[in-house]
Records
---
Amino acid sequence: MKFLRNPFVMILFLVIALGVVNVISPGAFTLFSTTVEAEVSETDDPELIEAMNGLVLYSEFNYQTLTQAKLDQLSYGFYLPIQYGDVSIAWSSDSSRFDIASVPETIPVMSQTGPIDIEVLHVQVLSLPSALQGNDPFIMTATFSNELHESQKQYTGQLVPVMPDDFWGGVFFTFFRYLSLFVEGVLTTLLLSLAGTVIGFVIAILLVLMRSIRPARHEATISRLLRKGLQGFAKFYVTIFRGTPMIVQAAFFWYGLGLFGDAMLCGLFVVSVNTAAYIAEILRGGISSVDTGQMEAARSLGLSYVQTMRYVILPQAIKNAMPAIGNEFVINIKDTSVLSIIGIFELFNQTRRIAGMHYRQLEAYFVVALIYLFLTYTVTHLLQKIEKRLDMPVKELTSSN
């Protein structure tokens, strides 16, 4: 198909493919770092055991203790103690990004008895990995020795990229460093918007059929009341869901009713029922655009009301309304951002998460704005190609949540 040759469509398919790869193999993206396991050689010497268990590393910033969590997110230098009581400690590293000083220096640190001075070796970080390279794992090997024995212990960690200070550098860093989160957000957004539009379309057909029912005078009272009840329900449904914001509906069904007990299912439900109200009005307009003579002609040929709607009226109405229905899909891509209020990590919520990691709001939201623009432009272009291929009217009808 020709529309598949469009570069924007190809990029959209590439994003979806990346998401599939991310699900199958999380390590494919830089956010998911490679970890290494520490090794400790066995020893029976209680002095060495005490030293290996009690030794800590210190950050070059205020000489803070480096916990394992900090070692796994390291981007600055640190200090290595070379003595623990009567135990001497020698250090080595498997990473070329470190320079371990050969001359010891003295730093003040806090102990249980108060501040003390200890001798350490300063480890300088020569280079950090780029955003494309991702986290770079390393191993620091400590050799503990006293007069009788010797033993080794490994300390593992990861050097992480640092965001550049300039705007464009921050933009590229944010995109490539957190590509997996953006892909995950895009897939969640597309899933909710596409599935919500399809389900909403099915519900909308039922609603428009209910609303188009006209009770006849010769019908029984119960039948007429039933028809009026269905018609009234359809009007009430459209009024409620078109008259309230989607963000309020999401909060009501999730926090108020605790619907489904799963945020994704609740979010899909909200998008579907909200979209159904808008598509129902679009289809009602499409039915009104079909000449009334076709209904009369079909009935005169012996078709029932249901058969006439199914085979004559609805196919034409749906075809006329397809541009506006496609427009609803594009709107849903943007409007799913309100589902962040119920904890769904769609594209916008993933961006809030990323922005909070570095406190650089501008770069993160600039990236997500470009992604939303790309998605809406690509989907709009794809829908226009489909409309032309199926010989649908190209005119877009106004519809907005």
Note: The chain has two domains: 35-159, 172-389.
---
Amino acid sequence: MDYKAPNNNMREIIYGGGIREILAQADAMERAGRDILHMEIGRPDFDSPKRAKDAAIRALESGAVHYTDMTGSLELRGEIAAKYKREAGMDVDPEREVIVTAGAIEALMTVFMTMLNNGDEVLVPAPYFPAYEDQLKTGGFVLRSVQSRIENGFRPQPEDIERAVTPRTRIILINSPNNPTGATSKLEELRGIAEVAQKHGLLVISDESYEKFAYDADTPHIGMASLPDMRERTFTISAVSKTFSMTGWRVGWLVHPAPLKMYLMKCHQGLATCANSFAQAGAAEALRSCSPDVERMIGEYRRRRDLMVSMLRTMDGIDVPTPNGAFYVFPCIKRLGISSEDFCRRLLEEEGVSTVPGQPFGVEDGYMRITYCRPENEIREAMIRMASFAARLR
């Protein structure tokens, strides 16, 4: 049968060469007997906290196997509200301003589908998480890229965002700490972006999925909604996925302006109904008691970051800013005289190191993403192999 694309919006989506396709290729090579070092996939390599797992098991064994309230269990919404009070001084109403979602990705789609009309624009600093573009195109919306510069550590600048505003602009999407660069915005930059949003009457989505992965004193994580006069226009999105190494649990949340609850809920209902019931119990326990697990993990990731950056900086032809957050490095390889796609393909084929070229993240040729959510011995070996490969290109 001659199938056509399901809808016209999806015709513009790129269906190959992304992170998952590269991972599948690397996995196939590994199954064939190759020694592969996985530096492509962004998932923590730590186990989920034991207290969270025990809480989920107790919930499952006690019969918590049915729907929760569509907004999420009151227990988890209460812990989410308590988190923002504790960490940002925000008074969040768990009944009127919190929706528990099937991961951060569903929270994003809920906001897009609820707040945007066909053809509306979302300003997204690049490099950006590729799923943003896929989601927006699927919905018939427009991602308007705002290029960040390596000279600024890839931190988006307010003046660049303001220059990109058009009559169709509806939302500014900020992801700090950032996937794929690790860039973490400074307070004065966030204030500047907030001023742009207020001046032009724009909404803001603050994707804070990597909020705990902020390593340096001069760039702590700061939530956009915590800034003056920003609560009424900000949608804060986060999850237990990265913070607690619970990616497979699929529990995230959306903190939103209270007057929009009925509309957001209608969209969330159509997308997911509710998040997994017993996983919500584990997520509530994670927020309540598992901060020590997070602190240990963050300390290890800081050491891994420093190791990877120091080794990359010994490689002739590779330029890399120090990422202040997340668990990615986004080096520039333009001086090597090879396309990033060819570099990553050959690095995998010749050295068994799996990485991702920069183009899926919305940037020009010449960049690549490397994750450091792997054990130190694997990072060291991957960097040795990459140095050997890069030296052969010079």
Note: The chain has two domains: 8-47+292-393, 64-289.
---
Amino acid sequence: MKPADPVRDQHQTTRHLLMIRPSHFGPNPQTAASNQFQQPAMHSAVDLAARVIREFDGVVAALERAGTGVLVVADVPGGATPDAVFPNNWMSTHNDGTVVLYPMAAVNRRAERRPDILEWLAADGGFRIHRVIDLSGLEQSGSYLEGTGSLVLDRLNGTAFAVRSARTHDPALAEFSRLAGYRIVAFDASLGAGMAVYHTNVMMSLGRNFAILCSEAIGDPVGREAICAELEASNRSLVEISVDQARQFAANCLEVDSAGGPVLVLSETALQSLQPGQRRRLERHAALLPVGVPTIEHVGGGGVRCMLLEIHLPRPAQLDSQSMISPGLLRHPDP
């Protein structure tokens, strides 16, 4: 792959989100070894499916009430995509019209990459795709980088924070940096039990004016100080959380734009873990929008941030108020 112009991200947040409505959600044995959040399902397959759909539809409804544009995409048929509800791991989009496709560690997750979604975005959706950086070929050499799970992007300053793990490798980070132009800040972190943090977004989140960080997960004092200094240099208010709070998805949240201003989408689990002072500091920058996704958190091992793929692609202003639902590919949640 030849180096290209760096990604030009002028905005940290967006009002457009893409979500995959799951049809085959369930425990994924191919991801369990590296994901300490993933727990066995305690429900029958029928009950599990019903619970997950209720949770998913509840997130969509909450976002729509807040005035955020949600693109709901049907899962692929066939039953081979238990983690499809987490689309942020296979694609990211950027203000200059760049789309990045990522190399996935689990073989059964690679089927989540959807060329049909890119085609719809560029055609019926009215979004402008200028180029596609496809890193998926790195899978052949066993080098992985799982989207904005592995990467927490400071889009305004062109910095990508990444915890090294079985799903986030230095060669893939170097290739992302070369082709996308982001400066990489890579480090090691653990939430205990000798396991690396499997995705950076379970211990860190960046909004326009705030940062959430579980700094105690960074064992190296020098590295910890350097990460905190990076965040402070970005002029963000730093909200520190504990390892216990990180285990309750307190960092797995996302600031999005809405009709009423910025909102921070987080799970009810995460909200309940926050101390009053932490809530107040976050509320200075965004209204808190809690949603209930306990089944998705415990069985899937990912939180609400993982369910939200940000669409930063340019789109003509006159299209912003129009529907982004297309028959066949996309659908509204069932009533």
Note: Confidence is low (pLDDT under 50) at residues 331-335.
---
Amino acid sequence: MALLRFLPAALLIALLSSCDTLPTRAHATAEPGAGSTVAGKAAASHNDNLNAVAWMQTSVEFRLIAGQTWRGALVQLDRAIKTPGWDALTKEDRANSAKGLPPAIIVDVDETMLDNSPYQARLIRDGLSYNEATWAEWVKEEAAKPVPGALEFARAASARGVKIFYLSNRAEDLGDATLGNLRKAGFPVKDASQFMGLGMVVDGCESEGSEKGCRRQLVGRKYRVLMQFGDQIGDMVTVVANTPAGREQAVRPYLGWVGERWFVLPNPSYGSWEPALFNNSWSQPEAERRQQKLDALRY
């Protein structure tokens, strides 16, 4: 009981003292090391992602927003455990009864549990865009730190007997490095089955692209899912049409669950919200993609 009473305050202190998936994204546009040249530095200073990454790395506000998300979840956790009918899976993902099943939570990894902003900062510095090779190099460093508040919540959940499943769109062959990073950061991980990466085959369920529905369904077959956490709505629900309207439609039936069973972490740096603005067509020239994002602004 003492843990429940004092942990929220301890979590806040921890996140204040801290200074420290992936959807398909554009390919590299410059050679490594471009950031060391005058042209590279100029390009970095005008990178659309500069403010977003600087905010995530340096602002008190980011740490407070992330921390209050996890503190709010902690308040709901004991309530969820004690309420037999409590379940955080959509009707599409809940293929069986959750009655009598042990409790679990589902979390995304990137920008939910682990902070990958140093990777984004390197891309800005070097005048590059995301690509699988540089991403894999970063993952294998196992150097990502916890998102503020995530570690404290995960430990509190584990102490209550709640199993954590890390559903990520990191490729399955990055599973060992991901688990290694999570363990180094202090997250509770007992075995490799807790990591469920992109490409995982689920019997009786056919996945589409990077959607996580089949993996959520697999967890639900053996567990009552108390909560889901992510920085994208696709971490909680299947998005049939990745357009602004389609994304709104996907989440609308579950708005009452947000802040209770579903918790969303802030990520202005990247995500499926971005290609939704240019018809998910990364093959378009950068200038055309940027113009469509400008066209989406309200004045």
Note: Confidence is low (pLDDT under 50) at residues 1-6, 15-24, 26-36.
